[in-house]
Structure formats: structure tokens, C-alpha cells
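Hello, quick one for you while I still have it in my head. My current little project is about how a certain protein chain folds up. You're getting the sequence in one-letter code plus the fold written as C-alpha cells. Would you mind checking whether the C-alpha cells look sensible for this chain? Here's the protein in full, and shout if anything looks odd to you:
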Amino acid sequence: MEFTNTKNGNALVVKVTGRMDAITAPEFDGQCKNWIETGDTKVVVDLSELEYISSAGLRSILAAAKKLKGAKGEMLFAGLSGMVEEVFNVSGFAAMFSIYKTIDEALAG
């Protein structure tokens, strides 16, 4: 799993590429800790190039979102498709989080 971070106004856009599973999910937790420590509390997560997400990945996202919420922040998602979108729908994450088709829509939302 790889991360690419870019600032867009008051938001941090994080592109996640590859697989988020039991092996790589802790990296997402560490990244979230870094975002909060550097003052980034509005995070748009671009999952358009995420190929796979496991239950460990979902737990990691949930933990990161709770940390951000505790810091008066929010986590938004964009670009879900295929298996990742299906997992978000089946797990109920689609109802728990703000999900947008594009990064631009998430930034405006």
C-alpha cells in the first residue's frame, strides 16, 4: 500500500494505492496519527486506486476516523469502485461516512 498526500486548501487529500489488509492497515493508522499531529483535520481519502480492502483495513479506517473526530476533524472518501465500493456498502461504512464520486466533490462537500 502506498500513500500520496497533497494539500488542497484546508484539506489533506490522501491517495491510497494497492491493498489495505492486515499487513498494511497499521500503516494507515500511523499516517492518521501524523495527520493529526501536523494539524490536518479535514482528510479526503481517495480510494480510486485501492484494489482490495479487508476487515482489518475497515477497522483501521474506523479507528483513524475516530481519532480525527476526537481532534474535531473529519474523514471523507472519494473514488470508490468495484470490490472496495461493495465492501463499504455491505459493511455499512457507506452509511457511516461521507462518500463522493470525485475528490472535487468531496472538497466542495
The mean pLDDT is 94. The longest strand covers residues 42-53. The beta strands are 2-8, 11-20, 42-53, 74-78, 98-100. The chain has one domain: 2-108.
